[in-house]
Amino acid sequence: MTIESLAGSTVLITGAAMGMGKMYAHLAVQDHAAHVVLWDVNAGALEEAAAELRGRGSNIHPYVVDVSRLEDIEAVAQQVRTEVGTPDILINNAGIVRGKYFWEHDQRADIAATMAINTLALMHITREFLPAMISGGRTSRIVNVASAAGLLANPRMSVYSSSKWAVIGWSDSLRLELKQAGHNHILVTTFCPSYIKTGMFEGARGPLLTPLMEPEAVTERVWRAMKEGTPMLMMPWTVKLSTALRGVLPIAAWDVVAGRVFGVYKSMEHFTGRK
């Protein structure tokens, strides 16, 4: 069932203070959502984003929350339930990236933080709101932002790839569980993009036939997929192609194709990330 309008609905977006998270918030307002809940750890940027969105028809609710901490998620989720209500649309967008060899990762600042923010936070946040979404019976959507890196191994992305690999397995399993249990009013979309032109992947180079994507076009496509209830969205089309090739080629042959032909294995050699 496609959602035609978000009128009367509540949308919650994580990582909403800047970048694509803020773009999703603008789309929610444009789509006439009654309430738009913004979660971010950056208090200053969060208030600036909220100020941009106010006065356009939706009620804007900013909350400072560190999604790497379960205690924060639990406390702020309770605030949202009390002050706003249960979200109808949940956009699990917040994420971080570390681009270096595995042995160069710091145990806490890199490994633990990446897994906490990119993987566990999505599970904890969804678990906070899902029971009420189920019992409420309202048409609902969950979007989990994964990555093409969760489908294909890549040098200098070992920890990031593992965090997104886990998201894909969990997110699509959740989709099937809801369907099996008969909760057909809730649809889950797993989003697997290649590199996007945001500061998050500054310095990364797109593989052959896979240019860095414009964030505005990407968010609009994700928004459409969310409303349509698309189970999995891969962008661009080469993500599907590479996933198929990886599935049929022997590992040695795939390494040649990915490394020498498409340049996937060199895509993070000049990565600097957001400063």
Description:
- The structure is a single chain.
- The chain is an alpha/beta fold and 275 residues long.
- The protein contains 8 helices and 7 strands, in the order βαβαβαβαβαβαβαα.
- α1 crosses α6 (215-228).
- It has a 7-stranded parallel sheet with strand order 3-2-1-4-5-6-7, sandwiched between helices.
- The longest helix has 30 residues, at 107-136.
Terminus-to-terminus distance: 42 Å
Q: What average pLDDT do the residues reach?
A: 96
Q: What is the total tally of β strands?
A: 7
For the biggest sheet, the summary is: 7 strands, parallel
Strand content bin? 5-15%
- Show unreliable segments: none
- In sequence order, what are the helices and strands, one letter per element? EHEHEHEHEHEHEHH
Set out the fold topology:
Layout (H helix, E strand, L loop, with lengths): L9 E5 L4 H12 L4 E6 L2 H11 L5 E6 L5 H14 L5 E4 L14 H30 L3 E6 L12 H23 L5 E8 L21 H14 L3 E4 L1 H12 L2 H11 L14
Parallel strand pairs: 1-2, 1-4, 2-3, 4-5, 5-6, 6-7
Helix pairs in contact: 1-6, 3-4, 4-5
Key terms:
single chain, 275 residues, alpha/beta, 7-stranded parallel sheet, 8 helices, 46% helix
Give a brief rundown of this model.
With 275 residues, this protein is of the alpha/beta class. It has 8 helices and 7 strands, in the order E-H-E-H-E-H-E-H-E-H-E-H-E-H-H.
